[in-house]
Amino acid sequence: MRVLVLNPEYPPLGGGAANATAYLLRELSKHKNISVDLVTASVDGERTEQLSDNITLHFLDIKKEGSLHYYTNRQLLRYRQLALLKSRQLHTQKPFDLVHAFFGIPSGVIAKQLHIPYIVSLRGSDVPYYNPRFRLADRLFFKHLSRYVWKHANYVVANSQQLADLAGRTSPNLKIPVIRNGVDITEFTPAAEEPSTDTFNILCVSRLVGRKGIDRLIEAVATISKTHPQVQLSLAGDGNIKNQLEHQAKQLNVSDRVKFLGAIDHATLPNLYQQSHLFVLPSRNEGMSNTALEALASGLPLILTDTGGAAELTQGNGKTVPIDDQIALVEAIKEIMVDTTLRQSLRTSSRKKSEQYAWSAMADSYINLYELVVSPPR
Questions:
Q1: Long-range contacts: 76-80, Cβ < 8 Å, 24+?
Q2: N or C end of the chain, less CB within 10 A?
Q3: Which of 263, 249, 253 is nearest to 208 (CA)?
Q4: Considering Cα of 246, then 248, then 253, then 254, what sign does the dihedral take?
């Protein structure tokens, strides 16, 4: 079986979808009856790499500049043009059986143009009305384009039930199964002991973009620090509002309490989680957060906002708070910060819960879909 995977994101470019693709390919490399070509974007010119005997990576030069975690419209358009040409070239050389498109736009659009059976994996920002910033564009254009792309796909899947429900607003009659992200529980493990509480370390690993709600987290730290001076926040990630967030921290007089770590190499992330007491991701929109799953496997209590797969990730091991509810966010952080017994219980529950998620399970679910596409039941 020959599979073409399309995703403009692949580490170090991108965020959760990039990591999900990398882990999926790692799992697929174990299935020698499946041959995969990934067509993705590059930060340093066009090239081809062999990940394994059956996995080939094709990197396209989209003239990527600026943040590793943010794409301009021009860069996405360039990816679409170059990826379509590259995909056609590869298909002519040796035909593919199906296309797996991460993101309905632009990857699903490319897949439709190739006239090959295809699967679309919805990730979040590619679903109409997911991001309020694009509400007008979604209503006028992207809703119709998404509906067209999804209608012609063999399968459309989402990474959380809430995302599937949101996509259902655009295509009410479309059945959208859920294939959740996974986590490597051998790579991400709890610290042998919780770090010293001389400082209370809150960690957020995220793109620094508006929909992640990092501004609310900085406000919460400013409020909490007035009565709990040991609180510290580490922000791992980069994005188009980094300067704005740094200015906010300065204006709130918490520049010494908020560390902007920038884009972190994946290999150093496990240690970063182990040095923390609590993971907080106050997103305004989210699918199934890879970094929340990593925090889960690292044994950290979670505080997430009520969006995406938050509810299923915080049962018995953290708290879900309403979106943009500053008071609820402050109270949730304080409750976990001051109660050592509660925190230890949540740590244990997080690690246990993480064992339900594995990249191998995600890969098996996709392989089942691949087989249904190639050999549909009669």
A1: 76/8, 76/106, 77/106, 79/8, 79/41, 79/106, 80/106, 80/109, 80/110
A2: C
A3: 263
A4: negative
pTM for the full model?
0.81
Q: Cα–Cα distance between 24 and 38 in angstroms, integer?
A: 11
Domain span(s) for CATH 3.40.50.2000 in the chain: 2-182+358-374, 200-354
What is the rounded CA–CA span in Å between residue 294 and residue 24?
16
* Token representation of residue 58: 């094709």
What is the CATH class of 2-182+358-374? Answer: alpha beta
* Residue where the block lists tokens 């500053």: 326
Contact 338, 323 (CB under 8 A): no
124: nearest Cα among 220, 212, 231, 185: 212
Question: Domain 200-354 belongs to what architecture?
Answer: 3-Layer(aba) Sandwich (3.40)
Strand-pairing partners, residue 200, are: 231
Type of residue numbered 306:
D
Residue pair 195/275 in contact (Cβ under 8 Å)? The answer is: yes
3 state DSSP class of 115: coil
Q: Which residue has the tokens 């040095």?
A: 275
Long-range contacts of 30-37 (CB under 8 A, 24+ apart): 31/367, 33/1, 34/1, 34/3, 34/367, 34/370, 35/1, 35/2, 35/3, 36/2, 36/3, 36/4, 36/5, 37/2, 37/3, 37/4, 37/5, 37/90, 37/96
Band of residue 129 on the pLDDT scale cut at 50, 70, 90: confident
Question: In angstroms, rounded to a whole number, what is the distance separating the alpha carbons of residues 177 and 156?
Answer: 7
Positive/negative CA dihedral, 169, 174, 178, 181 = negative
Q: Calculate mean pLDDT across residues 152-173.
A: 93
**Per residue in 248-257, pLDDT tens?**
999 999 999 9
Q: Please give the pLDDT value at position 70.
A: 67
* 8 A C-beta contact, residue 37 and residue 21: no
Q: H-helix or E-strand containing 242?
A: helix 242-251
- Gap between the terminal Cα atoms of the chain: 19
Q: Token pair for residue 2?
A: 């020959």
Please say if the pLDDT value at position 131 is more than 80: no
